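Hi all, long-time lurker, first post. I run a small reading group and we've been trying to get comfortable going from sequence to structure in the token notation. Rather than ask abstract questions, I figured I'd post a concrete chain and ask someone more experienced to write out its structure so we can walk through it together at our next meeting. Sequence below, copied exactly:
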Amino acid sequence: NIVTPDQSLSYDVDEVAMPGQLGDFGVLPGHTPLFAGLRTGTMWYRQGNEKHLLAVSVGFAEVLPDRVTVLIRGPPSRSG
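-- Answer (accepted) --
Happy to help. Here is the structure in token form:
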């Protein structure tokens, strides 16, 4: 899930990677729960064999074993 002040988007994905404040990190199903700050940069998610890139702004990510919620200031935009 990607949540901004104006919209909420949901994707079913197999893997996601985000630009964390302390470095990029990836998440697979079953990941240990964590809460992380995000910096402006590019995140990507994989659906099967297809990889999609999104430019995101500063925000936060909540990672749970079955879901990732990304809270950002503005809407994500397609990248690459």
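A couple of things your group might point at:
Strands lie at 2-3, 8-9, 15-20, 23-27, 34-38, 41-47, 50-56, 59-64, 67-72, 77-78.
The chain has a mean pLDDT of 93.
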